[in-house]
Amino acid sequence: MASMRDNSAELPLAELSALGRTPVTEGAGTLGPTNRPQTDFPVPVPLKGHGPARVIALCNQKGGVGKTTTTISLGAALAEYGRRVLAIDFDPQGALSAGLGVQTHDVPTIYDLLLSRSVDPRDAIQKTKVPGLDVIPANIDLSAAEVHLVNEVAREQILASVLRKVSDDYDVVLIDCQPSLGLLTVNALTASHGVLIPLECEFFALRGVALLIETIDKVRDRLNPAIELDGILATMYDSRTLHSREVLERVVDAFGDKVLETVIGRTVKFPDASVAGAPITQFAPEHAAARAYRQLARELVSRGAVA
Ligand SMILES: Nc1ncnc2c1ncn2[C@@H]1O[C@H](COP(=O)(O)OP(=O)(O)OP(=O)(O)O)[C@@H](O)[C@H]1O
Ligand SMILES: [Mg+2]
Fold it and tell me: Where is each AAA domain found (predicted)?
């Protein structure tokens, strides 16, 4: 079924490298999309111990740009490289929880942790099928959280205080934000050391980025002076369309080296993997998309965004 719509297997080598597949002949002269040189990021060295975690929010108020897919796939790739990863489902839709195949009902969720300080965050952590990748789930209850938190003391810092209780056990915490810039997202940004912005290679996707960066700047001014923009990740890139290439070129023009070298190609394997409740790195380990997320993991380690 997938092969009918998934053309990546038929692309020539240069195009596959644009999709993030490591070319057979690596090194000198390899060019990625937008003709930037493609670095062969080294495999991360094993860690001697774990924690404290660096917290990264995956954030974009535009819907459907690949936040959840990136949280799952990057988390799984980092876990393959021996990093201890905790993924936080911070969207009432619960797509991250579903994509990782964990329970969301009759279990403590992130909502319970935000609302009650008496719940131990460790009791909400669930293991996934990927060794080293754990998750705190969410369900539709979370949609009521903004209303409940509005009158709390230090309402923007509640997630940060929850994560402080578990971050020593992990190397990285990835927060899958909902598509909004409301109080939950501000909580995620306040709790984070870094932000990763998945950006769909589509013209209208560019329009919201200025507002998102403005929000990050406000959070830096008022709540979290240390927050950094770790990178902008181009997703759903289709090297066969001029449109995708033009959008990527514009993004690089505007944001320079904040744009990660790794580019995630468009492929129907992702929806297929979500249905299976498994990360792409397990569902189709040799697929270009799985390789692209491993490359992203290596790039983020090389940049120092992850230990
Ligand atoms: N590189 C890709 N190629 C093709 N489809 C993709 C790709 N990445 C994600 N998708 C699919 O696009 C849809 C939206 O992706 P995803 O849920 O990751 O986005 P999101 O930003 O988390 O969305 P939301 O804002 O609703 O939370 C999903 O069906 C997913 O399977
Ligand atoms: Mg999502």
Answer: 54-228
